[in-house]
Amino acid sequence: MPILKKSLWFISSSLLSITPIFSYSQASENKPEHIIVSGQKEDHTSNRVYSIESEKISNIAGGTNLITVDHENRLLTLNDALKDQPGIVIQSLFGGLDQPRLSIRGSGVQSAPLSRGVLLLQDGLPLNEADGSFHSSMIDVRDVQLISIRRGANSTQLQSNNLGGELDFITYTGRNNQNQLRYEQGSFGRQGLQMALGGYSDDHPIDARISLSYDHYNGYRDHSASQRKTMRSTLGYTSDNFENRTWINWTDLRFDVPGPATSQMLADDPKSVLPAIQKKDPHRNVEQIRIANKSTWDLGAHDIQLGWWYSQTHDNFKTPSHYQFVNYYTKGAQFNYKLETQRISYRAALAWDHSIMKDDIEKNPKGWLGRYDGRAENIYASLGAGIHISNNVLFNLDIKGTHAKRDVFSSHNSLEQSFNFLTPKVGLVWYPNYNTRLFANVSMSQEPASFNDIINPKAPLNKVNLLKLSPQKATSFEVGSDSDLTENISWGVVLYRSFIKDEYITSHDTNGNIVDIYNYPAKTRHQGVEFSINAIQPLPIGDFLYRATWTYNDFRFMGGEYNRKYIAGVPRNIITGEVYYQLEGLKLGPTIYWSPTEVAVDHGNHFDIQKREPFVLLGFNAHYQYDNTWSTYLNLDNITNKRYVASTLANPTVKKNDALLFPGNGFSVNAGVVYKF
To answer: Does domain 2-193+310-676 have CATH number 1.10.3810.10?
Structure first.
């Protein structure tokens, strides 16, 4: 609390002392236009949406990714769109349409199967429930044109109170849509079909788009089939200084749960599953409908946004130990105001969200354990300023206040919790020249527990515990740079360190069931490096394209029972690379995904008993654009058919025969064809 008071005093006094120095002016002294170094190296000068988002995140004093979704490859889950991005750890669990584990800087890395730790947005409006949880496979990346990522606690979105930051999925509209049919087929029974139709009127300010998709996957492992159906639609009204847009999304996802494997199973047959899986048939069915609306007024120096959203999510989850029939009803609204003057950009925001959760829990085999009614509610308010100290130096000051409730009731036990906290942020952005951006920030975060953490059907299952958990608190320090070294070479690097109090730690039994979630009694530390480089080498005929990333994670306990040990389940090094030859409509070349470091599966770090071994995956991609209408692609993954562990559970201790490993897919071929009209 003393740190928060000092930070609040510092920010308030800074704003009061600096604001009178500058007078109001309609004109703004802009820094040089700068394109963020990330994702594919392409010419986006004609893409207005990209340019607007690029300019927006260039004012963030921290690590960012701005990704043009690569529609030249397989697009099954978030794993396909994000696996080669610096600073993003995305781990496949079952290898199909299920929900991959998404984590940034260690936030939420232990939260699967219902994720938390980052904020997901669609076109600037939250996709998370009010308790912070989300289903990562509710997003159809084929409907997304850009992914804008703000890594770390420096994220400025009101609802982002976590350590990891936020991902904003910017979708197609009728104004930038291309009608298309897309068909994909691949190994292990993979089939995918998408149809997108849209357009706008030259005589009226109306545009519309609808996208329908169907995916099916038999699965690499036994008992790992999955299926997903989606509908995405948008209707927009656009005038000179006003835009109103409505989105309606529907998703129906079903997948079998093959569960974790032992080291012996991985060596003998990575497709095999535990006997309990065959006997008890664990699976998950998630259906969600979401309606959202946003209005934007662009009034010169003033920018106003008003948005609201409503969603219903039905999640039926059968594990080897129990059934959970969960219904979420979530609604929310947010207001954002921005005033641009010559020297200062003022910003203010208010938001509210509310979720009602109904959770019926039964034993597997059946045995009634009770209904749990939950209510999560948050009220957010923030004030901030971006102060242009000079044409090339921007100083950001932000303070956000949050009131959060997490209440759970049942016939035999209940828990009511409320929290009030401040999360200040201070950042600096400096452009020493046109091609280079330097930045630094100090940011605080507090993340209350989700219902999935609070309601714990502890195994062996005989009752349900309600866990009273303190919010996970962190203070983060970050410095970095991105730059165009030459006309054809760009790079970016970020170094960060976060000191965390009350980190959420999860442990599992030998069948993968959660047995405990608790606040670690001592501090933990997350630190790391995020690096990327992109290059183009022109040739007499065609070009070579190079791309490489390195994400280094050093996450440790800084006291208590596991002092100086690595936090289990987190890959310490992830290195990716691509080399393509490009000639007119043809692009092809090899890819690499390398995890060169052993990963602990227990917080005691007993590497001699069980661990995740290092591995290298080799691939090959090819894409051919025949004309402006037809294109096709071919992806080869894990060409050497390497047996490897894609992700692990994390336990306090480990035995040789504990099932903590999720085997990755073997050699696979995926191909697709796209027809645009």
So the answer is: no
